Amino acid sequence: MAETDVPSLIWGFEQLTERFVSGLFARLAALADVPVELENLKASLAAGGTPLLVLLFEIVLLVALVAGVFILLARRFKKTSATRSGWRRYFAGATATVVALVVGFIAARLLGGSGVPLQTLRLWTVATVLGLIILAAVRSLLMASRRTEFAERSVHLAALVRDLSLAIGLAIIAVTLVATLRLLSVGPALGDLLRTGVAIPIYLLFAWAVWRHRRTMAVAVAGPRPRSRWRTRLAKMWPAIVIAFLIITFLSTQAAVTLGASLRGSAVLLTALMFLAAPHVDAMIGNWAQRGLESPDISILAAAGRQTARFTVVAIIVAMLGTLWATPLAAGFGIDLREVAKGASGVALIMLGAAFLWNVVGVGTARALRAELPAVGGDEEVQGAPRSRLGTLVPLLNAVGKSSILALALLSILVTIGINVWPLIAGMSVFGLAIGFGSQTLVKDLVSGLFFLIDDAFRFGEYIETSGAKGTVEKISVRSVSLRHQRGALATIPYGSIGKIQNFSRDWMIEKLTFRVAFNTDVDKVRKIFKKIGQDISANPELAADLLEPFKSQGIAEVEDGTLVIRAKFKAKAGRNFMIRRAVLIAVQQAFQENGIQAVPKPLTSNPPG
């Protein structure tokens, strides 16, 4: 920043401070004119034939009539259309809205006659209907942001809805009251007093409701499990964020009034509603999208469309906030809003298309992996079981597909906003070529990994042994594979360094067991015992599915130091032989004890002294 800019900034800050202080003193001094302006208002209404108290009574009567008609019709239509489609329920709600408006306009005509009283009663009719629609939408939104299985939290959520509905209802009444004061052409002092006097309790009520139900609101914002880390943090901080937003909004509105540039009450209220409702809308759409992802009856495109709806809602909220606040600012700076809107629309369409393709890839990946891993709760053994070749390649295809979509979307956005991307593409190509020549090891790893995957040498969840490590395949990336040893150590091996691979989890394997018994043991008896054990294991429903050939004796393998070495074997599915081996050893031990067969330990050998 240049040195000449510092004095100008200080001077501008001083001017703003003086303007604020003078405006504050002017507001305080204007309070003395409130009684005079109130008397003038009463006199003007009395001259028009409608005293102030009569107008207030007519407003209360009209609001009660319109609200009663709307609530009665809404409940009646809700009962009759409870089992019908959603479009019919929306049509029933629209019908109740139209009927309530018609009844309110007729009653306003009969009570107010003409002129300002008629306009005032019509204003309150429209405000009543819109307020009831907003309250119903807020209630439905908050109640739908939680899943139905959390019934124990319905009482707390209902209390949150009740308190927030009270605060929102009072805010709608305050905005309508400010609009009424403009129709009645009240003085600035009386209008300022009523606006400030009504705003303070409303903001306090909002803050009290949020703080009282902070835990319930945090749970509603968090949404269903599993939750991402940023979503959990946002949920914990959300009550404090809302209260801070209320404080900033109140101070901003009062500062604007003091500086002589009051903010529109409708814009402030709409911004507050969108800000408060945004995470709950996202949670509700997230539940709806999760049901689509879990349902096999919904296609991948439809499920991806549900996921994209979350992004669409965020874009709509940002667009509405920009329309409310950025449009007047842009007009003040002389910015062409048509060009801005055109460019923003192009970028939004590209982002929307990219989000849809991103979700198509994500939904397809999730369903493919779900087909590989059946829903078995927290069974780690089943979740870590070997996957098929498709289940191994799906995560890699998912990463490559999403990266390609993101890169194309970014390039398209740059083209839309008028940036020439060809030098960037050429530079990236040259840079990639330089990396290819300078990083031969990296290229070797990438090419080797490609051929390993083409040859289907290993899959996710299989137990393999390479030239440098062994373990269960836990992660497969573009450059390396990670093996988890049975003791817990994790080894990451570049594809170029793998060398020979031994896969212990593919197809089948033969398990051979050795037993040392006394020399005088009846071998034929041992053979019959092993045959009986093999039949029992083959009849076990928990082990039979993984057993390919039954457990049987192979006879005497050798005689060693006066001991018979008897071998036996069985054939099982790869990776599923451990449970069968355990059952065989337990059964052999029990059978040896029952039949008096003595097992002989292997003799210890030692080197002679010297």
Spatial ordering of strands, largest sheet: 4-3-2-1-5
Name the overall outline. Answer: elongated
Q: Structural class per helix/strand content? A: alpha+beta
Give the % helix.
55-70%
Subunit organisation of the chains: single chain
Main β sheet profile: 5 strands, antiparallel
What string gives the helices and strands in order? HHHHHHHHHHHHHHHHEEEEEEHHEEH
Low-pLDDT runs of 5+ residues are 148-153, 374-385
Radius of gyration: 38 Å
Overall mean pLDDT score?
Answer: 76
Query: How large is the share of residues in beta strands?
Result: 5-15%
How far apart lie the N and C ends?
89 Å
What's the total helix number?
19
Q: How many DSSP-defined strands?
A: 8
Please render the helix and strand layout as text.
Layout (H helix, E strand, L loop, with lengths): L4 H26 L3 H14 L4 H29 L5 H27 L3 H29 L9 H31 L3 H25 L1 H9 L6 H30 L6 H30 L5 H33 L4 H36 L7 H4 L5 H28 L5 H17 L1 H15 L8 E3 L4 E7 L3 E5 L5 E5 L7 E2 L4 E11 L4 H17 L1 H4 L2 E14 L2 E11 L3 H18 L16
Antiparallel strand pairs: 1-2, 1-5, 2-3, 3-4, 6-8, 7-8
Features of this protein?
alpha+beta; three-stranded antiparallel beta sheet; 8 strands; 610 residues
What does it look like?
With 610 residues, the protein is an alpha+beta fold. 69% of the residues lie in helices and 10% in strands. It has a five-stranded antiparallel beta sheet. A three-stranded antiparallel beta sheet has the order 6-8-7, covered by helices on one side. The radius of gyration is 38 Å and the shape is elongated. The model is unreliable at 148-153 and 374-385 (pLDDT under 50).
